[in-house]
């Protein structure tokens, strides 16, 4: 077994000022548990929050990985790995590896995902996947074999989460609230992307709003060559009949409600599409205003992006 302790290089490395350079690893998380209990969801949450993540890592490689992260020069501050029975016979070494990490003083957390047999069987039926421990047998047989192997690991886990009865979104929220260090949680990024419907919608948008009901500056010859970015004349034209104000009266409370919920779920980024006919005037002006509003505080990172602005109206 390779010790996750300081190597010779670690002991002798120094900074440019001659001071020893300390490793940066602050948090190391080992995610394990039953197949179908939500390990993939868990690792996705940690990855979204900036952790260096490795899925399906054999137990015998954990110590080597930790040693690399602790080596001076490594810039990895937070890391998470998934280790489970997909590793086959290698998995049986996990319990000893975790005990070795503890014995050698390597700070780490073990997160164990579990669920009752009925829940796991239902999830396997829904996905039509084979259980890794029973590729030619029943799912129930695979779960029984897995429980026999995982019992000792569950017993030493610092955190055990039963995902039975939780939706994917509820599981993500629980992981964010219970397992992520407060300082590790980055502000959610929000992109307000303008576009023109005549060139199709924004493909990766989480929400799309159609603002073609607003007055169109395209029909004013003096405004047609202009665009909605930092242009008070265009904005005044769009807002002239009062519908823009009414739109904001309904849209802003909706976004004020939704965006914190997305952040609490653990989403790292949300894209909101704002579409008009050509993507030059109305959608651009609104995307700019929304970006300024939601980027003004310290809750979100916000930006405006204009897909079709350079293409003309």
Word description of this protein:
- With 313 residues, the protein is of the alpha/beta class.
- It folds into two domains: 8-184, P-loop containing nucleotide triphosphate hydrolases (Rossmann fold), CATH 3.40.50; 188-311, no CATH class.
- 38% of the residues lie in helices and 17% in strands.
- It has ten helices and nine strands.
- It has helices spanning 8-12, 39-48, 62-70, 94-103, 117-127, 139-156, 168-179, 232-239, 243-265, 282-295, and strands at residues 27-33, 52-54, 78-82, 109-114, 159-162, 188-196, 207-210, 269-276, 300-306.
- The chain has a five-stranded parallel beta sheet, with helices on both faces.
- β2 (52-54), α3 and β3 form a beta-alpha-beta unit.
- α2 crosses α7 (168-179).
- The relative contact order is 0.13.
- Mean pLDDT is 84; it is low at 1-21.
CATH topology of the largest domain: Rossmann fold
Q: Tell me the span between the first and last alpha carbons.
A: 65 Å
Alpha-carbon Rg, integer: 26 Å
Spans where pLDDT lies below 50 across 5 or more residues: 1-21
Number of domains: 2
Question: What shape does the CA trace take?
Answer: elongated
The level-1 CATH class of the largest domain: Alpha Beta
Q: Supply the CATH superfamily name of the largest domain.
A: P-loop containing nucleotide triphosphate hydrolases
Q: Largest sheet, if any?
A: 5 strands, parallel
In helices, the fraction of residues equals: 25-40%
Helices, by number, come to: 10
- Find the count of extended strands (DSSP E, 2+ residues): 9
What is the CATH architecture annotation of the largest domain? 3-Layer(aba) Sandwich
**Order of H and E elements:** HEHEHEHEHHEHEEHHEHE
Strand line-up across the major sheet:
2-3-1-4-5
Structural class of the helix and strand makeup?
A: alpha/beta
Mean pLDDT: 84
Strand content: 15-25%
